Amino acid sequence: MLKKSVLILIFFCLNNLPVMAAPSASATAQAERFERYYGLLPDADVQARIANIGRLLVKANGLSEDAFSFKVINSAQINAVMLPGGYIYIYKGLLDFMPTDEELAAVIGHEMGHVVGRHLARRGREQLLTMILGGLLGGTEGAIAASAAINSLPAYNQRDEREADDSGFKFLLGAQMNPYAMLVVMNKLHDADEHPEIRSNFAQHPEPTARAQRIKNQLQKMQISPVVLESGLTAVVKDKDWSFAITMPDGFNKPIYRAWLLAGNLYALANAGEVSADKFIVDEQKDYALIYYDGRLIYRLCRADLLADGVSLAQKAAECVERLREWADGNNGNRAAAR
Q1: How many CA atoms lie within 13 A of 70 on its CB side?
Q2: pLDDT tens digits in sequence order for the chain, 339 residues long
Q3: Exposure of 69 by Cβ count < 10 A (0-12 exposed, 13-18 middle, 19+ buried)?
Q4: Angle at the Cα of 61 (from 56 to 64), degrees rounded to 5?
């Protein structure tokens, strides 16, 4: 009876403990040890790129800039982590696996979701409860049981991951960024699990397929347009009578991922106001071409896109720009008709 009363008291106290952030000095010291162990990527441009993405998400969503830090770790692993104190680290290997700013924003937004959800503190309470319960069992048996239970706890459970997904999705919308990017990231988690040659710790995250479906359901409820349709290996971005077909992969980005990224970029563009068809420009590189709108990357053409049509990169880029201008004209017409 006494044990039962103690258990009730423990549960009450643990469930009503204030969630306190780790002391700043302690969190900073832990982050510094982590950075010394892995090393920061010695590329100022890449570090600035990740920091800028993070700051955009933080500022646009009314969060405190002092509560977050964004850096790139010099490791080939495909991973991202959050340490106490809001220290968020992107591993160098992730930049190749998820190369676009939109994908990286989704990953960073997810890690920010762990911060605002205080998931590390929650896990700490779970550990404390487990240790107390083990002590109540008594003796060596209780200590072993408590230790085993603590070691079996995942870094984050499914509830934590879903909450971080939802927060990251909201952060993308709050910053007027690509809402489809979270869907790309969730599917790539599944891809990493299928490719043992990829040095990924993301593959250990729970239920990526179910989490991807949850994001897809949210997009459908919001009736976000353009939509993406898939037929075999072809993905089609469709906005009323306008459509854009993608048949070729670009590195780790399958046609469906490229379509989601394009659709989300167009959604963000239209959501920001009227679109000028004259502002689409091409930055042609050796093996690819980037199509921008007013400084915002909209679409990336790669060499594989030329195989189906047998045209030059410049010709293909010009065709894509023309198609995007048609979309802009149609979007402006729909906006005018809705007034």
Answers
A1: 23
A2: 444 443 333 333 433 333 334 436 877 888 888 899 889 999 999 999 999 999 999 999 999 888 899 999 999 888 888 888 888 999 999 998 899 999 999 999 998 998 886 656 555 544 444 443 444 444 444 444 444 443 434 455 567 778 888 889 999 999 999 999 999 998 988 787 666 655 555 544 556 788 888 888 889 899 889 999 998 889 999 999 999 999 999 988 999 999 999 999 999 999 888 899 999 999 999 889 999 999 999 999 998 998 767 788 999 999 999 999 999 998 876 665 555
A3: middle
A4: 80
**Tokens standing for 125?**
């309470």
Task: Please give the Cα distance from 61 to 55 (Å, whole number).
Answer: 10
The half-sphere exposure of 53 on its side-chain side, counting CA atoms within 13 A, is: 29
Please answer whether residues 49 and 101 qualify as being in contact, where contact means their C-beta atoms are separated by less than 8 angstroms: yes
| C-alpha Rg value of the chain to the nearest Å | 23
Q: Please calculate the CA angle 148-153-156 and round it to the nearest 5 degrees.
A: 170
- Other CB atoms within 10 A of residue 308 CB: 11
Contacts of 281 (CB under 8 A, 6+ apart): 291, 292, 293, 321
pTM of the entire predicted model? 0.79
| CA–CA distance, 228 with 243 (Å, rounded to integer) | 9
| Per-domain residue ranges of the chain | 1-223, 225-339
Distance CA 128, CA 153 (A): 12
**What is the secondary structure of 47-61 as a DSSP string?**
HHHHHHHHHHHHHHT
- What is the DSSP code string of 254-319? -HHHHHHHHHHHHHHHHHTS---GGGEEEEE-SSEEEEEETTEEEEEEETHHHHHHT--HHHHHHH
**Residue 42 three-state SS:** coil
Query: How many other C-beta atoms are found inside a 10 Å radius of the C-beta of residue 334?
Result: 15
CA distances from 237 to 215, 226, 307 (A): 18, 6, 20
